[in-house]
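Dear colleagues,

As part of the handover before I leave the project, I'm documenting each prediction I ran so the next person doesn't have to rerun anything. This entry is a single chain, and its sequence is reproduced below.
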Amino acid sequence: MANTVRAKKHLGQHFLKTEAVAENIANTIVDGEVSKLLEIGPGMGVLTKYLLQKKLTEVHVCEIDSESVFYLEKNFPNLHQRIIPADFLQLDLTTLFDGGPFGVTGNFPYNISSQILFKVWENYERIPVFSGMFQKEVAERVCAKPGSKTYGILSVLLQSTYDLEYLFTVGPEHFNPPPKVQSGVMRMTLKRNYQPEIAHSALKEIVKLAFNQRRKTLRNALKSMQFEMSEAIAVLLTKRAEQLDVDAFITLAKAKIS
């Protein structure tokens, strides 16, 4: 095997080193759900190894770190021409897998985890299954329910489109170097027969504005917007963002006057 890769702080790299944890993450991708898979940030391939053993027709990996790319090329010849040396956030997903659907997984860099989630949500038509490891508080936040202090923008947007599960917690001792926080593994699957009731951009606009002033009632937080008023809308506007479930936000977005 080629030499190990040096973890780089500016890339938020913490390499998973425990085989059993890697195998458990790989098992969040259920055989038969998708035939093609993209792994983000494979590093030295501890998770990649188990993904390649699954019943998938194609596995691609996206890695921004040139040292990791070199390591993968040397140690995973079966990934021939399937290593994408790029930043996932800049990647045009329509160019992957001949335009068909694919799953996404990984041990994600904590410093860009929210951006990864936003990009997946915006590309839901191509990504029916998503799983992986985040900083624990991020994984818990996106799975949070209304009324929780951690319920927020990502919670509403992702839950409007996907069914979410928080699966298990991973301690710092399973990484090199160990992070200063706990990690959490979560999984998202596209809602059955999902058809958006409102444009994603419209829902995102109203949810972001509501939670950016979460201490205020929605009447005040959304005062720059106009709504087709009804008794139901009037009641919703008396509440704060964290009190509304996903369906209530969709109702508000539908009532917004363009």
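The first helix runs from residue 19 to 26. The chain has two domains: 9-190, 200-255.

All the best with the project,
I.
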